Amino acid sequence: MAHVVLYYHIVWRTKRSEHSITEEYERELYAYIHGYCKEKQCTLIRIGGMSDHLHMLVAIRPDIAVSEFMKVLKTETSKWLKSQKSKFPMFNGWANGYAAFTYCERDKEMIRHYIMNQKVHHRGVEFRSEYESMLAEWSLDPKTDLFLKDDD
Fold first, then answer.
1. How far apart, in whole angstroms, are the C-alpha atoms of residue 84 and residue 102?
2. Fewer Cβ neighbours under 10 Å: the N or C end of the chain?
3. pTM of the prediction?
4. Rounded CA gap, 55 and 116, in Å?
5. Which ranges constitute the DSSP H helices of the chain?
6. Residue 96 backbone phi and psi in degrees, to 5
7. How far is Cα 125 from Cα 77, in angstroms, rounded to an integer?
8. Does residue 91 contact residue 21 with C-beta atoms inside 8 Å?
């Protein structure tokens, strides 16, 4: 039997980076995402974010492709958020794509702490700058990345 642990730091944003995830009700969204992870038998270690984007650290089972995991997660949360219009009146959907970075066990606490402190972090850093720094850390060129491209 194989033993595989895959930790993903996944980042995704709202359509056109609209500030539509209300701080007052964000925990309800996080609880919904936690339920999705449990249903998929994946472990949500930490979730957090801002009104225009989310971060999560999650251990995804090796038999589930991260692309499929995120496709379904974004579809289901979009439906749920739209059904909660009184709590998330500005939500119009998620932007295309996401970013997923893998980490090992020894980095787990660092990433968990980073996600936990998103509100403090973003007092001085815009999402675009944060994301471009993440790309640089992984030696990726932001000019070739389509994740921040405005949605039609």
1. 32
2. N
3. 0.88
4. 9
5. 26-39, 66-83, 108-116, 118-121, 127-137
6. -65, 145
7. 26
8. yes
- Domains of the chain, CATH where assigned: 7-144 (3.30.70.1290)
The first and second tokens of residue 63, run together, are 């038999």
Residue 14 and residue 91 in contact, taking contact as beta carbons nearer than 8 Å: yes
Q: Which of 77, 90, 119 is nearest to 16 (CA)?
A: 90
Helix (H, G, I), strand (E, B) or coil at 55: strand
